[in-house]
Amino acid sequence: MADPFSQIEAGLKQGLAEMFDNQSVVAVLDRRGEEELFEAGRRAVQLAVSPILWSERLGPMLGTAQVCERLGITRQAVAKAVDSRRLLALPAGKSRQFPAWQFIFADKTAIRGEVADLLAAFREVYPDIRPLQIASWAMTPQPELNASTPSAWLAGARELEPLLDAARRTAAALAQ
Questions:
Q1: Which are the contacts of 99, defined by CB distance < 8 A and separation ≥ 6?
Q2: Dihedrals φ, ψ of 20, to 5°?
Q3: Would you give the DSSP letter of residue 127?
Q4: What is the residue-level pLDDT of the chain in tens, covering all 176 positions?
Q5: Cα gap 152→163, rounded to integer Å
Q6: What is the rounded CA–CA span in Å between residue 95 and residue 133?
Q7: Which residues lie closer than 8 Å to 141 by C-beta, 6 or more apart?
Q8: Considering only CA atoms, which of 76, 73, 98 is closest in space to residue 87?
Q9: C-alpha to C-alpha distance for 44 and 54, rounded to whole angstroms
Q10: Under a CB-based contact definition with an 8 Å cutoff, are residues 93 and 138 in contact?
Q11: Cβ contact 90:99 at 8 Å
Q12: How many CB atoms are closer than 10 A to CB 163?
């Protein structure tokens, strides 16, 4: 197996080759300066790698169709759970992604009841908190949880109050 750098480099080269097959694109790029083109290439690598890094940081995700199938509900019911703040959704283009830590995976998948309490704890302290901030927090060890991550704390069906305290402390720090 090739190293990650070589794979990204090969993908960039293929993408560039496909782009340069289009003469109108080449004409536009020919009118740009070296620094602008260099910066565009640097940003392209960041954009290419960032979804991989975020995926690693945020843990397993489910798409809307997967949530519907596993819960046995419609897209409208999923949207209602998000709107009523019983379920955290991350924007993903024209769709949404749902952190897997919010669900109980047993004979029948269910939304963890604690998720609504957790989201409420964040919003009562910092109403403008973004879903990405909560999702990232859930994968970060917290002192109130004996250095456990909130996602692991939930999976272990542990006491709820330390989890809510950790959420409120983080929300207060983010609101500064």
A1: 58, 59, 60, 61, 88, 90, 135, 138, 151
A2: -80, -5
A3: T
A4: 678 878 888 888 888 888 888 888 888 888 998 999 889 888 888 888 777 777 778 889 999 999 999 999 999 999 999 999 999 999 988 899 999 999 999 888 999 999 999 999 999 999 999 999 999 999 999 999 999 999 999 999 899 999 999 999 999 999 99
A5: 11
A6: 18
A7: 147, 148, 149
A8: 98
A9: 16
A10: no
A11: yes
A12: 22
Query: How far is residue 32 from each of residues 29, 36, 67, 123, measured CA to CA in Å?
Result: 5, 7, 45, 46
Q: Are 149 and 155 in contact (CB under 8 A)?
A: no
Task: Compute the chain's Rg from CA coordinates.
Answer: 21
| CA 80 and chain centroid, separation | 20
Supply the DSSP symbol for 87.
S
Longest dimension (CA), the chain: 62
Rounded-to-integer distance, Cα 86 and Cα 131, Å? 12
pTM: 0.75
